């Protein structure tokens, strides 16, 4: 009997984001002769057609073999399956995402969680939220943390032209949970208290003005630079040369960007909610992401205390050593291997 594991890589057809990066890194450490990657053609990979391929066509490819689904979703007809759940945002905060996407996953996730043989959660926070929303035994879930590509983050990287002598770095996703508008408010409020050669660099596009107007931001504050899309070759340089990295997300199933910053020695200012404290521990400055005053105080702390920045940079780099993709991949394969036969 063929004991290869079938890996559902439908997610890899789309643009490279967090889940795609996770899938790429984890699969790269699996024994290549023991897996078979399957995906639909690009023209039907997304949206309704993609879900129908996954639910109706994919089960017919398995022929009794174990299915590994690394991106939250998987076919409900397949019990012989290990699925990775990164977060349960559709169940906890459907108002943050597309309403059709939310409705689909509200129907899918509870059924999938009960049906599959095993679930991998990327943090203990995610594990606990799964248990809160899906009636399954705790023994059905294993926690395997995400990793960091240390070679990539500490190797050679390409500089990016920045219009400031010094800068604070942030990621500019305009999902509501990323909390960029409150960061911009805090930045505007402290501008008169910080050196004039320092700017805020936001990796990403400005996006819809509605995101800002709904948060009482009429215009982008001074000394804020949106890079637009940035290729991977520039990311390590941006982390390494930043004064600190600001990541005030309301909700994360894990929180990879602050961990990547830590791996380069960049001090981190981050929200103290959901999985972020579990990942960062005491190796970053944690604040209430809902509190404008705490965000302002955290940024001013780093601006005014060079020793605090240095200390957090060193602690962060040490903490990040605990996480690497080789370990993530090996632990994930060990779980899969238990169910493979």
From TrEMBL:
Instruction: Give residue ranges for domain Glycosyl transferase family.
Output: 166-319
Which GO terms are recorded in the biological process aspect for this UniProt protein?
Answer: lipopolysaccharide biosynthetic process
Name of one Pfam family that matches: Glycos_transf_1
State the UniProt keywords alphabetically: Transferase
Domain Glycosyltransferase subfamily 4-like N-terminal residues, every copy: 80-151
MF-aspect GO terms:
glycosyltransferase activity
Q: What is this protein called?
A: Glycosyltransferase family 1 protein
- Species source reads Mucilaginibacter terrenus
Question: What are the top taxonomic ranks of the organism?
Answer: Bacteria, Pseudomonadati, Bacteroidota, Sphingobacteriia, Sphingobacteriales
